[in-house]
Amino acid sequence: MSPIALSLTLIFVLIPLLLSRTLNLGLEKDTIVATIRSIIQLFAVGYILKFVFDSDSYLYILLMIALMIFAAVHNASKKGKAIPGILWKITVTIIAVEVLTQAILLGFGIVPATAQYIIPISGMVVGNSMVLSILFLNRFTSEMESQKNRTELILSLGGTPKQAVHTQLTDAIKASTIPTIESQKTMGLVQLPGMMSGQIIAGADPVQAVQFQLLILFLLLTTAVVSSILLGFLSYPSLFNERMQMIRQTNS
Amino acid sequence: MTTYEPAIHFKDVRYSIDENPIIGPITGSFPAGRITTLVGPSGAGKTTVLKLCNGLISADSGEILVEGKPVGSMEPTALRRKVGMALQDAPMVNGSVYDNLALPLRLQKKEISEDEAVSWLEDVGLSSDYLHKKASELSGGQRQKVSIARTLVNRSDILLMDEITSALDRASRREIESLITRINQKYGTTIIWITHNLEQAISIGDYTWVLIAGELVETGESRILEDPADERVRRFVKGELQ
């Protein structure tokens, strides 16, 4: 894309700005901030990626992935403050999912071990694992709250904490992974996935683009299911103490 | 006054939440093989006392002995089977009445036969027709009966009952009252029962604990409620403390 063509894309920013001004929507400031941030962030990432690709050093690849994981953990852990030690639990979850998926991809030679493949795929895996962690934590904390009676019932009948949270845990795991599975059912019918569209616009063979998109879809299935199960099994024990009591009980 | 062997004994027990004292220090006993009612205004700490008895919560200080053994030395699941608890709103798990009766044994990876489940149902005054009924379709009184039967499956020596009759109509309440007496007589089970109904406490209970603002104000045979010595208890009995 030529610099002039790129500048002309700002027309798509001017349209909402003009509409916002005319209709007094008050969106101008946020729109301008969002535009400037996205230009700076994306170009920065572009140049960093170019540098990492050119250097062909695994150290830079690892640093890049570490940065992604750091940002993802920071974001996701805000949602699980009710669970003690949530920060390291999300860190372990995201690292485990990243290691598992890369081990399969590189171990079986599904993609070449170069920055061009490792970094964008890691970005998708880490990003997805973060979203799934947030979905899971939201659902799990609300299930635990709404089903407190059930948890108490199982404990009072002589059940273990694992038995007491079993239903809440599986409900939360199912609820957080269903969107990933459902979205795959309509894939290609309603909209073309972003990555595939990008490849086609950049001139790739559509069939080749489809093959990579399938790889990503299957990868994200594993990411979704493993992330929420792992985070679930890491999280629930910290809601109980060694006397099998719910922590922070409040009663009359 | 008759002396009883204690099933559960509290010695200087205190419990607080976030540094707000809820109960204590409490010292007192629940006599073995008897029905003790736990009465007092709301917020007095009655449910807290029950939960301390079966280890759903632990005391901050003091000692609780169950049949002479400190609760802290007992394995939590074993303690909760020995000291069973019927919760106030009788929560049911999804599925049939049978599924609910099977729950205590399924938690130990065991199964219960239909015949055995029916005999527990009959014990609480429900016919075998209820066995395959959905738990969600039961009335309030039937739920409480199933909840009690489910607790009986663990063959607990001590049975804790939160305010299980508070949401029931008069007829269902009477049925539960006679059920409690029957269980106590048939199995010799020690029963500790929270009720806000003083008439019930006097007619069904052998013994009573009066809790006010986390303090065990009076304890003794149920007839003490007819003529309380303590001024606060007198005000509570008159309905001036709620």
TrEMBL record, chain A:
* Annotated membrane topology: Multi-pass membrane protein
Keyword Transmembrane helix in annotation: yes
What sections of the protein cross the membrane?
57-74, 86-111, 117-138, 214-236
Task: Give UniProt keywords alphabetically.
Answer: Membrane, Transmembrane, Transmembrane helix
Q: Which InterPro entries match?
A: UPF0014_fam (IPR005226)
| One GO cellular component term | plasma membrane
Give one Pfam family, short name only. UPF0014
Q: Where in the cell is it found?
A: Membrane
* UniProt main location, coarse: membrane
Q: Does the keyword Transmembrane helix apply?
A: yes
Family as reported in the entry's similarity comment: Belongs to the UPF0014 family.
Q: What is this protein called?
A: Iron export ABC transporter permease subunit FetB
**What is the originating organism of this protein?**
Bhargavaea cecembensis
TrEMBL record, chain B:
Extract the CDD domains matched here: ABC_PstB_phosphate_transporter
Organism superkingdom: Bacteria
The ABC transporter domain extends over: 8-237
Query: Which Gene Ontology terms of cellular component type are present?
Result: membrane
Q: Name one GO biological process term.
A: phosphate ion transmembrane transport
Q: Write out the coiled-coil annotation as residue ranges.
A: none
Q: Which Gene3D superfamilies match?
A: P-loop containing nucleotide triphosphate hydrolases
Give the molecular function GO annotations.
ATP binding; ATP hydrolysis activity; phosphate transmembrane transporter activity
Matching entries from InterPro entries are given as: AAA+_ATPase, ABC_transporter-like_ATP-bd, ABC_transporter-like_CS, P-loop_NTPase, PstB-like
Checking SMART domains in the record gives: AAA
Q: Which UniProt keywords apply?
A: ATP-binding, Nucleotide-binding, Transport
Q: Please identify the protein, giving its name as recorded.
A: Amino acid ABC transporter ATP-binding protein
State the species of origin. Bhargavaea cecembensis
